[in-house]
Please model this.
Amino acid sequence: MTEKLQNEVRNFNPIRAIIVILLVVAVSYAIAFTLVPVENLEKDGGNIGIWSCVPAVFLVVYIFATKRVLEGLILGSIVGLILAAPTGNLIGNLSETATGVMMDEDTGWLIIVCGLMGSIIKLIEVSGGAQAFGEWAGKKAKSREAALTWTYVLGCVIFIDDYLNSMTIGSCMKKLTDKYKVSREMLSYVTSSTAAPLCALIPITTWAIFAGRIMVGNGYGTEGQEIQSFVTTIPFSFYAWAAAILVPLVIWHIVPVFGPMKKAEERALSGGPLAPPGSEKIDLGAGEVEIKGKPRLINLVIPVFSMIFFTILFDLDMQHGVIATMAVCFVLFVGQKLITAEEFWDYSVEGLKNMILPLCLMVLAYIFAAVNDQIGFTRFVIDVAVAYASPQMLPVIIFILLAITEFFTGTNWGMYIIALPIVIPICMGTGIPVALGCGAVVSAGVLGSHCCFYSDCTVITSSATGCDNFAHAWTQMPLGLLAGAVAAIGYLICGFVMV
Model:
């Protein structure tokens, strides 16, 4: 147990925690019984109107006030469940929702992929592959700008999946950027901004397959044309374009950093800690690593390209890709006699254990998103947009409101499942180009997840780069909002030109 964690345990006040929980529960029940029309739950399929915003607003306020994301997700879920069923069994409903999330295929995929990615990264570190890459990249990059540019370029190369991108680039580039006193917040920003945005702009990615299937399933394109349907949205994914273009402008000081990111960079450049406080709890590579044998670049290149190859081979399924890559790692590292078969599994389990906190955060975010679905949060936001916006204004309104929704819920793919089936028929009925409307939805998901403190995008990047997830999202938010403003202008112009 680290000294910081020991201090947190000593400073923990159980009485204060109990008071906070009881107060939150009491206020939630008061709202549920006095303000929310309970009959709406039966009449409108769980839609409780504007009160569906209460859990999301509570969560964001709690996180800003305490900087504690995990507890906020639990309390936010409890608030939502009380509003959803004030006369029901709260403990039973929480258990049922959590069980449903844990049994969901997507959650299983998340645990397998992220867990095994943690194992693969640990094995690469132990084999000396990460150190060899750092030494190789150090010969190429002679300045902090060059180090960040290499991070950006390599992120653009590994575009198949945002998880693969963030975990590989973030964990491999830390030592190089540390050498040039780059704050972990800046490394996280560059890593994150070449993950989801690139996946939204390239048709041979897991994002393209997922979103394309939803589009075709809701009448935009024919069966077998999922990629083609997604391709039509790429020109209108304005946030993804803006975010990807902004990164090199920031790296080379054409656009100066500002706000919290400026303070983080000043801290690092002045000789202060490179990582913000609390980062060791989520850092995938925290602690000293015993290198087995001579560091060789091939011990990183083969596993990374194996993940890319097998992911493409198995129809862009990262789960199959990481399982196949584990087999490759076994043959590669045991075959070189760097480690024994027993050590291979020991290090694999150690890498899996490093992912426990990130996985807990993401699963709790899924539970919170499931609760929001029960009370109709996303549907309420879309209904408000349609009711009060003209067809010309609808693209920019969809982008802004769904980005806010994604910021609150933290599950961009989950938002797509709800929003795309609603937005597509709205576009068809109002004369808005469907590609424009779908592009706004896709961009909203990327922006919201970039700024969210507990989205999978934020948590995965934070664990790979060794940066506290609150600090990562907080410092990235102003830059994300800058790119978001550019995107909003694009949707506003297209709304009046194309509709």
Summary: Residues 1-103 form one domain. The two ends are 59 Å apart (CA to CA). The longest helix spans residues 469-498.
